[in-house]
Amino acid sequence: MSGDAILKVRDLKRDYVIKGGIFTKPRILSAVKGVSFDVERGTTLAVVGESGCGKSTLARILTMIDPATAGTVEIDGQPIDIAKYGVSREMRQKVQIVFQNPYGSLNPRQKIGAVLEEPLLLNTDMPAAERRDAALAMLQKVGLKPEHYGRYPHMFSGGQRQRIAIARSIMLKPKLLVLDEPVSALDLSVQAQILNLLADLQEEFNLTYVFISHDLSVVRYIADKVMVMYFGEAVEYGTRDEVFDNPRHSYTKTLFAATPRADVNSIKARLAKRAA
Amino acid sequence: MPLLEIRNLVVEFDTAAGPFRALDGVDYTVDAGEVLAIVGESGSGKSVAMLAVMGLLPDTATITADRMAFEGRDLATLSPKDRRQVIGKDISMIFQEPIASLNPCFTVGFQIGEVLKTHTRLSGSERAARVIELLKAVGIPEPERRLSSFPHQMSGGQCQRVMIAMAIACSPKLLIADEPTTALDVTIQKQILDLLLKLQAESGMGLIMITHDMGVVAETADRVVVQYQGRQMEEADVLSLFESPKHPYTKALLSALPENATGDRLPTVGDFRALFETAPKEATA
What membrane topology does this protein have (chain B) (predicted)? Predict the structure, then answer.
């Protein structure tokens, strides 16, 4: 399936300039230092790493919020360079993002109906009645009810809000969805519901996900391919089974070793060590 | 005699819509040298119980318990003065957000010293020496230089180490850690958990870990209490909890772990709800 890559990234770099004072020179911080990968249509690439490894910068570049310093990004066959050409309405419709914090990513003064209709209002010429129908249909699709249309975000739980954020992101029928830690702030059982919802939506709309996470058990569950980032570099990149069964880079091994394991054998081993 | 013994603890909050019962008759016992994990999702009352022990709940909360004793002394009838001598000294607590729990206006050296000033009779120079010793114990490099750092100059993991240093400053008999690693990266989480367990093993204190993460439970606990919506679902030692969970809710929680996924879909707690909403605690014990 490698011929059908919806997202092609080659040697992507992003530098931030940190302003110096009167006497100090400005410093350059390289957040992403040359990353290359492909994502095939309808599959999930998981990007794993700790805070500060550049995974959110990568998300910002892919969603065309930030320009890249160097390298190329190609989405659905179209090269992207927002520093030179800006972003067209059409490109905006292809990529959408879901953020980590469902409490911070919804406007508290906007009703859910308006939240869902806004992308259509801004990016399409759809008449109001059709926008409303689309929003109501989407509410059902993500497991909410039509009566939620007129409610405000504070009336929803964290899991419901994340459903709303996901609904908003697929209103424009995007091809590529960037999910920046979408389940990190959620309880275990709610996390399971959201992961199920994402799997359903992927199947229904043939969506491609770039799933950013630090939780390896979630990654192992959802990903087709995995990329591990460490200080702006991709230290490991391969299919899920390659990466999990045979991690090559020492950082990946550290990461696996640090992840708490909830299986009976590791508990037995720990208790034996403790008793000794 | 257990270190901490709580029987039938009920906590109610006054709200505009009438009293809200956050905790409905829970029991905990912790012995010296034991690690108890309280696990549950948000709204399960896991933090409220420990805040009640610490006396940190707001005035709108009504706390009733058949017994709430620390080393045999009844916490409910202690005078505020006696209570202050126990809380912070013999029982101390670490919170989830290390950066938010430290005062941004004072250096970390001052903040750790403050604990010692309140609870011990050490002189100024003895306190300074003890602070350095504590920072060393929690694994902060160059403690002498770090004394004069402000919280914003340290990383989240280092701030959590400072919080732990403050909590263990007076060699407490019981340490309560409320989601101590939730805000941290996994590699840092591993370091902090290892540190807590090492300190616990060295000093033989009791440790209560409040968490929602089954992985953390598996890596730290001796005994586990599972809570759901203010009620205790199951209490078991860690191995039997993971090996053969008795309560349907525990089973649901464990099967919702992505690493335990068997089919295409993750079972959610909702799939099991009908089973345990009606199941009384006794039926599963």
Answer: Peripheral membrane protein
Tell me the CATH number of domain A2-275, given options 3.30.70.2580, 3.40.50.2000, 3.40.50.300, 3.90.1140.10. Answer: 3.40.50.300
Contact residues, chain B, for A221 at CB < 8 Å: 258-259, 261, 266
Total beta-carbon pairs less than 8 A apart between chain A and chain B: 110
* Gap between the Cα atoms of B139 and A129, Å rounded: 62
Q: Pick the residue of A255, A267, A268, A274 with the most B CBs within 10 A to test the interface with B by mutation.
A: A267
Kindly tell me if the per-residue pLDDT of B270 is higher than 60.
yes
**Spatial CA neighbour of A186 closest among A177, A178, A198, A200:** A198
H-run or E-run covering A113: helix A112-123
* Range with the poorest average pLDDT among A114-118, B211-215, B236-240: B211-215
Check: CB of residue B26 under 8 Å from CB of residue B54. Answer: no
What pLDDT was estimated at residue B183?
A: 76
Tokens of A20: 């110096």
In degrees and rounded to multiples of 5, residue B146 shows phi and psi of: -70, -20
The alpha-carbon gap from B122 to the nearest alpha carbon of chain A, in Å, equals 35
The pLDDT value given to residue B283? 40
Cα–Cα distance, A78 to B210 (Å, whole number): 49
Percent of chain B as helix, strand, coil, to the nearest 5? 40, 25, 35
Rounded mean pLDDT, A237-254: 92
DSSP state letter for A25: P
Q: From residue B52, how far is each of B8, B13, B83, B88, B98 by CA, in Å?
A: 13, 12, 13, 14, 21
How far B187 CA lies from chain A's nearest CA (Å)?
Answer: 5
Question: Nearest by CB to A262, which of B193, B214, B270?
Answer: B214
Helix H or strand E segment including A8: strand A5-18
> What one-character-per-residue DSSP string does B237-252 give?
EHHHHHHS--SHHHHH
Residue from B10, B219, B5 nearest A266 by CA: B219
pLDDT for the residue B281:
46
Nearest alpha carbon to residue B70 among B4, B6, B8, B2: B4
d(CA B218, CA B239): 8
Which of B55, B68, B94 shows the shortest CA–CA distance to B209? B94
Mutate to test the interface with B, among A55, A187, A190, A256 (most CBs of B within 10 A): A187
B76 touches chain A (CB under 8 A): no
Distance of CA A48 to CAs A252, B108, B186, B243, Å?
A: 9, 32, 11, 30
Phi then psi dihedrals of residue A2, to 5 deg: -70, -15
Matching residue, tokens 């959610």: B268
One-letter amino acid at A129 equals A
Instruction: Name the nearest CA neighbour of B5 among B23, B27, B29.
Output: B29
Measured CA to CA, the distance from residue A164 to residue A156 in angstroms comes to 9
The CA-CA-CA angle for residues B272, B275, B281, to 5°, reads 120
Identify the weakest region by mean pLDDT among A205-214, B203-212, B213-222, B254-263: B254-263
Q: What distance separates the 2 farthest-apart alpha carbons in chain A?
A: 72
**Number of residues that make up chain A:** 276
